[in-house]
Design a protein that fits this description.
Number of helices of chain B: 5
Largest interface: A-B, 61 and 71 residues
Number of strands of chain B: 0
Strand content of chain A: under 5%
Radius of gyration of chain B: 24 Å
Strand content of chain B: under 5%
Helix content of chain A: over 70%
Shape of chain B: flat
Oligomer: heterodimer
Distance between the termini of chain B: 60 Å
Strand order of the largest sheet of chain A: 1-2
Largest sheet of chain B: none
Distance between the termini of chain A: 45 Å
Structural class of chain A: mainly alpha
Chain lengths: ~500, ~150
């Protein structure tokens, strides 16, 4: 405990330098803009801005990128409350009771409670990261290639099956990502694989180009095809909630925080599932469940806290194991790699200033977000009046400049355009690109550990099930597959989520 | 063909075919590399395993889709954005080195703007100026990225 407080103290030393404070503020403010605007996701923004962080110091770039990520999740509820449309996909649950509140003229209290809940959940869950990461990293350090390979398989399967009904498609997307990850130089022999004669693929596919093509560009195309209308509900008159509001919200906030912190740690789950779970829990606990859907304040406070708590604990697998728990984390991992830093259990010891600096900046960022979201909320609401037709050319130009800047390569820009066509096809076919991105970034790690494991066991593949830790991980993987692929069981597991949607 | 007699889920059949195609192509190409032995897995070994799994999943998806009831088509493909957005990115890639950042941004903005059927010409013009100024100001003067602004 003392050691953690001491490390955290030195982390604040890093995060409180003027430069890093400014990057934290830029990240949080950008994240808020992105979070408020529907059609612009944090993944898009991080992918777009990744290249321009190359020239920044590693700590600063990570502070800014994480700020965008949690800032967006913090602010997504504003749009949900005001327009009945999630600013981020993860704030869809907030629409259910937040928007009815706004229609009753209680938008202010709804916004206030969700900002306070987010702040509380953020602080607690960053504490969870600080507290749980060191012991987890310690355990992870004892992992050999066998355990690592199994762990990566577990993460990929979890991300695939939990996020979608259609496990065959999502697992296939993950495997496709892995296969695309084999493109380029084979590390152990130096052989060029699958490059089709393009020397630009010698170092593998450009990750930023793939991410921008699949997420940012394909999403623009899809958004332009869809018809949307935006209606602002009412005005924000007073922000201050009544005493009864606060009393009802407080319980929901801490329950949501606990639930979200726990759920967020596991790969594949994350903020969306946490907020659904919290909503159904609040409804079950309520004395009068019929209030839900008509503007119950617990239905805003609980899910919003769970959403933000999970946003932060989602970092834990990436920070301690080097295994991202979802698409935004895969991009953070890429940001680290580009800076020449290997994420994993050794991150905490070898780059202590980075690790603790980023964690300290999350506390600071949370405080900044509270100020950005409460007194300034009117500003963001006005931002909602900016039509999408002015927004997407800006995103597009930033994407082009960003992708070009990775290697100063025009080829990469053309490649991203090609990827966007496939990405749009994936949108149409309802194939989620998140497992693909994860597979793409984890492939080198998986293949290396897989080959090393077989080398150590002299070619005996049974080593994956005879080593106890690896066996446990693979049994968990199999259990996930069974639970989520058997339709009856799946329905029971996701019942909470479905109730939320109804 | 009437709707009642149609069967199969188009979405699953199409995605399954894509996975199967990638899987089969992967198998064929991986067999061209040294597969190695179980102890010393060669460069072709791991891609071969992945390709076989992918082809298997593709086939499974294809069969699932074939057996499923008809669940609607894929929606409209007529949006101009489908080709104009990628085209605008291609324009940027082709022109940025030859003509400089500002002409590339202007062209990209025009093509991208046209992807939205309700846009007005004056709006495109304003966006061209704004985005060119933004791109030059933030990325070249602010972040010092090595772009030339105009044709040399």
């Amino acid at each position: 405990m003392d050691a953690i407080l001491h490390s955290l103290g030195s982390g604040f030393g890093v995060a409180l330098t003027p430069d890093n404070l400014i990057y934290c503020l830029i990240g949080a403010a950008l994240g808020t803009v992105v979070g408020v605007l529907p059609g612009l996701s944090p993944v898009t923004t991080i992918a777009m801005l990744l290249p321009i962080t190359f020239k920044m110091p590693a700590v600063a770039s990570l502070i800014m990128l994480t700020g965008i990520y949690y800032g967006a999740h913090h602010a997504g509820s504003t749009t949900a409350i005001m327009m009945n449309m999630p600013g981020e996909p993860t704030s869809v649950v907030i629409c259910l009771d937040g928007h009815p509140m706004a229609k009753q003229g209680r938008a202010g209290p709804a916004l206030c409670v969700s900002a306070l809940g987010s702040f509380f959940a953020g602080c607690v869950s960053v504490g969870v990261i600080a507290l749980f990461s060191p012991p987890l990293a310690m355990i992870a350090q004892s992992f050999g290639p066998v355990e690592y390979a199994s762990m990566i398989v577990l993460a990929l399967v979890a991300v695939s099956v939990i996020t979608s009904e259609d496990a065959v498609t999502t697992i296939a997307m993950a495997v496709l990502g892995l296969l695309l990850g084999t493109i380029g130089t084979d590390v152990s022999t130096g052989l060029m694989r699958f490059t089709l004669g393009f020397h630009q693929f010698d170092d593998g596919l450009n990750f930023v180009a793939v991410a921008v093509g699949l997420f940012a560009l394909a999403q623009i195309t899809a958004n332009l095809g869809a018809k949307t209308t935006r209606v602002l509900a009412g005005k924000v008159t007073g922000l201050i909630p009544t005493r009864a509001d606060l009393k009802a919200a407080w319980g929901a906030i801490w329950r949501g925080t606990a639930l979200g912190s726990a759920i967020g740690i596991f790969p594949g789950t994350g903020p969306l599932i946490a907020s659904f779970a919290s909503y159904s829990m609040e409804r079950r606990l309520a004395k009068d469940p019929t209030r839900f859907g008509q503007g119950a304040i617990e239905g805003v406070a609980g899910p919003e806290s769970a959403n933000n708590a999970a946003t932060f604990t989602h970092f834990i697998p990436m920070l301690t194991l080097g295994i991202p728990a979802g698409a935004p984390m895969a991009l953070m991992l890429a940001a680290l790699m580009i800076q020449g830093i290997t994420a994993g259990p050794q991150l905490m010891t070898q780059h202590a200033d980075l690790f603790w600096g980023v964690i300290a900046s999350m506390f600071i960022g949370n405080a900044m977000l509270l100020v950005l979201n409460l007194p300034l909320v009117g500003l963001w609401i006005r931002l909602l009046a900016v039509p999408y037709r002015f927004l997407y050319p800006l995103v597009l130009v930033c994407c082009c400049i960003g992708v070009y800047s990775v290697n100063n390569s025009a080829f990469d820009v053309l490649f991203a355009a090609g990827v966007s066509l496939i990405g749009f096809l994936f949108v149409k076919l309802k194939c989620s690109p998140a497992p693909l991105i994860l597979g793409l970034i984890l492939e080198p790690m998986l293949e290396e550990n897989f080959r090393r494991a077989l080398l150590i066991s002299r070619g005996d593949a049974s080593v994956f099930v005879t080593q106890p830790i690896s066996l446990a991980i693979l049994v968990a993987t199999a259990a996930l597959l069974v639970v989520f692929c058997a339709p009856a069981l799946r329905r029971r597991a996701m019942q909470g989520a479905e109730e939320g949607i109804d | 063909m009437s709707v009642a007699t149609r069967r199969g889920e188009v979405r699953k059949i199409a995605s399954g075919s894509i996975f199967l195609a990638f899987g089969v192509a992967g198998i064929v190409m991986a067999l061209g590399y040294n597969l190695g032995t179980p102890t010393h897995v060669g460069p072709g070994g791991f891609p071969l395993i992945l390709s076989i799994i992918l082809a298997g999943l593709g086939l499974a998806s294809l069969v699932q889709g074939w057996l499923a009831p008809y669940a609607g088509g894929l929606g409209s493909w007529r949006a101009r954005a489908i080709y104009l957005i990628p085209l605008s990115v291609v324009f940027f890639g082709v022109t940025v080195e030859r003509f400089g950042l500002i002409p590339a941004i202007v062209g990209t903005t025009i093509i991208a703007g046209l992807a939205n059927p309700t846009i007005r010409l004056i709006e495109i013009a304003i966006m061209c100026v704004a985005l060119a100024a933004f791109g030059a100001g933030v990325f070249v003067y602010g972040l010092d990225l090595p772009f030339s602004l105009w044709p040399d």
